[in-house]
């Protein structure tokens, strides 16, 4: 394929503005899939994506479009030649949620342009802004697209105004489509050809291909996703991963259309996959550069800034013999998702497991669900915490990914927590409640900007620990669903923090320790033991639950002793009900851990989340 006839683009938008639906339409209109194969959000093929209706992983697809030349609605880029002909359009679908910015930024680095989708009613939202800025920073051509013009109520003119004032893009060139009904999809295909530059790069230069993703296939081993920047890669070539340092033969290569279709070679600007028979998962690094083993490129491509996990939790197999199996599955997960990290750890309470790092809470939930769906291991997950820094008296700075690691108060010079810059876009009438909400959470007000007559953007600096658990839910509830938020971690700041321990029947359960702001400690301690009381079932004896800071108990609850037998309630022989109850108890047991004499269910470990 000549590079003049290639266009590489992403679709970026706020969540639910229609990216995946538009991707479906582009596939359908270019006959990459047939009407019969057409199912909604065809690229969202992970079980978790289908269940939740959201995109988690970026996807690449090559489609072919027969361009017939400009018409009166075209806005061809100045100086660009667009001969009629067959064009290869490489589409990279991206997730919209804040936790997956990393996927977005990686996708953008493999493209020259982006379709920026904005919902015709909702207008510009927090992630529209974040994604548009990422595309602008990446120097991409941005094509604004107002989607959902079929909605009974739209605000197209206001939306275009927002696109101009907030994003600084020219609203007059925006396309107006309905991805759902397939309206004006042709105008999108045309604009991709006319308004995005073809890839640059020298076809005869030494090979440089960017590894932008990879996944593990049980039969074929590691499948590496690449975008060729310079040179050509052929089947049978001997290649080398420049950072990984290993060499391999290209056993197979091809494109996603949307299924894997083999071809003989990939040239400058093309996007596809290579299979090299690698079975060792650690050998492929996202952001690495593929070159030829013989004729090597002088230097590697810049790659990606490795994202730092900010949220951590413990994952422990319920059945200790699953430990090695869990390790293998975590390895595969880390290969498919470079922003996920893990390391072995032990807990007095839970035994051998792993400390896992995530970019945010949704990321954590998704990984946990994928582990259960794809790997079939039952897990106990501990409550998540953010990462902290401690400056010790001697001047040493240590990172704390688990509250248990907190050193004694005596050696701590400064306890630091991550701070996020949070951007809210809300109806103007909700500004007051948002300020209240942020004030209650130790927020520092930065500024307000009005986006139109009745919408405003508020910026705050807030401790990450105060926003990740439930800020999004609170925001939705106080704005009746109209508010959106986005955040970015900007650094660490000293705060008055302490470790709070939980004692169950006098014994400290390490997996329940948390780090809290001292001023909130008593309130949180009381809420937590109350919540634990609800989660832990009665035993044959009384169980004391205590929250403590050091040796000082700050809250206490007692679970009274059990008198009746579980099945006693079902006297009168309703056998099926009785069986059901026992069955339920058995299932519940799977997710329990024994601490001395006390059984603590999985849910109790997450109580911290609800004990705000
Ligand atoms: P994504 O999160 O940006 O990928 O959004 P999806 O493609 O998953 O779409 C979110 C929701 O909006 C789905 O329920 C779609 O059916 C709906 N949707 C997408 N495009 C349109 C459109 O043009 N009109 C209407 N009315 N609904 C749409
Ligand atoms: Mg999607």
From TrEMBL:
Q: Name one Pfam family in it.
A: EFG_C
Which key words are in the record? Cell membrane, Elongation factor, GTP-binding, Hydrolase, Membrane, Nucleotide-binding, Protein biosynthesis
Record's subcellular location:
Cell membrane
What are the binding positions for GTP in this chain?
Answer: 16-21, 147-150
Matching entries from InterPro entries are given as:
EF-4 (IPR006297), EFG_III/V (IPR035647), EFG_V-like (IPR000640), EFTu-like_2 (IPR004161), LepA_C_sf (IPR038363), LepA_CTD (IPR013842), LepA_IV (IPR035654), P-loop_NTPase (IPR027417)
The record's section on PROSITE patterns has: G_TR_2
* Signal peptide range in chain numbering: none
Enzyme type, top EC level? hydrolase
Kindly give the membrane topology term recorded for this protein: Peripheral membrane protein
Task: Write out the GO cellular component annotations.
Answer: plasma membrane
What does the record list as GO biological process? positive regulation of translation
Q: Which reaction does it catalyse?
A: GTP + H2O = GDP + phosphate + H(+)
Any idea where the Tr-type G domain is?
Answer: 4-200
CDD domains reported in the protein's UniProt record: EF4_II, EF4_III, LepA, lepA_C
UniProt-recorded Gene Ontology molecular function terms: GTP binding; GTPase activity; ribosome binding; translation elongation factor activity
Query: Which SUPFAM superfamilies does the entry link to?
Result: EF-G C-terminal domain-like, P-loop containing nucleoside triphosphate hydrolases, Translation proteins
What EC number(s) is this enzyme filed under? Answer: 3.6.5.n1
Record's PANTHER family?
TRANSLATION FACTOR GUF1 HOMOLOG, CHLOROPLASTIC, TRANSLATION FACTOR GUF1-RELATED
The text of the family note is: Belongs to the GTP-binding elongation factor family. LepA subfamily.
What role does this protein play? Required for accurate and efficient protein synthesis under certain stress conditions. May act as a fidelity factor of the translation reaction, by catalyzing a one-codon backward translocation of tRNAs on improperly translocated ribosomes. Back-translocation proceeds from a post-translocation (POST) complex to a pre-translocation (PRE) complex, thus giving elongation factor G a second chance to translocate the tRNAs correctly. Binds to ribosomes in a GTP-dependent manner.
Q: What is this protein called?
A: Elongation factor 4
What organism does the UniProt record list as the source? Caulifigura coniformis
């Amino acid at each position: 394929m000549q590079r003049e006839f290639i266009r590489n683009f992403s679709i970026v938008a706020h969540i639910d503005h229609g990216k995946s639906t538009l991707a479906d339409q582009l596939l359908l209109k270019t006959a990459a899939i047939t009407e019969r194969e057409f199912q909604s959000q065809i690229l969202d093929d992970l079980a978790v994506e289908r269940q939740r209706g959201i995109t988690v992983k970026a996807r690449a697809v090559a489609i072919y479009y027969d361009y017939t030349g400009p018409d009166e609605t075209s806005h061809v880029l100045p100086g660009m030649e667009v001969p009629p002909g067959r064009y290869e359009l490489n589409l990279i679908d991206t997730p919209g949620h804040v936790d997956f910015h990393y996927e977005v930024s990686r996708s953008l680095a493999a493209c020259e342009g982006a379709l920026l989708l904005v919902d015709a009613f909702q207008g510009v939202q927090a992630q529209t802004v974040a994604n548009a800025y990422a595309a602008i920073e990446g120097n991409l051509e941005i094509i604004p697209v107002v989607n959902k013009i079929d909605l009974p109520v739209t605000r197209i003119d206001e939306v275009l105004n927002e696109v101009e004032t907030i994003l600084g893009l020219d609203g007059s060139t925006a396309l107006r489509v309905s991805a759902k009904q397939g309206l004006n999809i042709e105008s999108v295909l045309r604009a991709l050809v006319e308004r995005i530059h073809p890839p640059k790069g020298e076809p005869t230069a030494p090979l440089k291909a960017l590894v932008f993703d990879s996944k593990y296939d049980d039969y074929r081993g590691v499948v590496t996703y690449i975008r060729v920047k310079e040179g050509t890669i052929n089947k049978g070539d001997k290649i080398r991963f420049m950072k990984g340092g290993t060499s391999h033969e290209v056993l197979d290569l091809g494109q996603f259309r949307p299924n894997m279709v083999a071809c003989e070679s990939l040239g400058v600007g093309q996007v596809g996959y290579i299979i090299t028979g690698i079975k060792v998962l650690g050998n492929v690094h996202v952001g690495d550069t593929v070159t030829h083993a013989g004729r090597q490129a002088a230097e590697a491509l810049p790659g990606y800034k490795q994202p730092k996990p900010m949220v951590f939790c413990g994952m422990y197999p319920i059945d200790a013999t699953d430990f090695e199996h869990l390790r293998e599955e975590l390895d595969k997960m880390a290969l498919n998702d470079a922003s996920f990290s893990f390391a072995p750890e032990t807990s007095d309470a839970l035994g051998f497991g792993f400390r896992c790092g995530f970019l945010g809470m949704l990321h954590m939930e998704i990984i946990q669900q994928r582990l259960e769906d794809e790997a079939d291991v039952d897990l106990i997950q501990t409550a998540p915490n953010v990462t902290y820094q401690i400056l010790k008296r001697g001047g040493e700075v240590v990172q704390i990914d688990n509250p248990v690691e907190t050193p004694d108060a005596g050696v701590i010079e400064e306890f630091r927590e991550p701070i996020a810059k949070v951007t809210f876009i809300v109806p103007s009438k909700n500004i007051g409640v948002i300020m209240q909400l942020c004030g209650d959470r130790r927020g520092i007000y930065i500024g307000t900007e009005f986006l139109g007559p009745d919408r405003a953007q508020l910026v705050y600096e807030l401790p990450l620990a105060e926003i990740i658990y439930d800020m999004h839910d609170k925001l939705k509830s106080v704005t009746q669903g109209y508010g959106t938020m986005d955040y970015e971690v900007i650094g660490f700041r000293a705060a008055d923090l302490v470790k709070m321990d939980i004692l169950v029947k006098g014994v400290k359960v390490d997996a329940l320790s948390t780090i809290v702001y001292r001023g909130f400690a008593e309130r949180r301690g009381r809420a937590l033991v109350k919540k634990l009381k609800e989660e832990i079932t009665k035993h044959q004896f009384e169980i004391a639950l205590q929250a403590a800071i050091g040796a000082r108990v700050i809250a206490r609850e007692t679970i009274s002793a059990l008198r009746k037998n579980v099945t006693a309630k079902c006297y009168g022989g309703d056998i099926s009900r009785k069986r059901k109850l026992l069955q339920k108890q058995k299932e519940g047991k799977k997710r329990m851990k024994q601490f001395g004499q006390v059984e603590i269910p999985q849910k109790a470990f997450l109580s911290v989340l609800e004990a705000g």
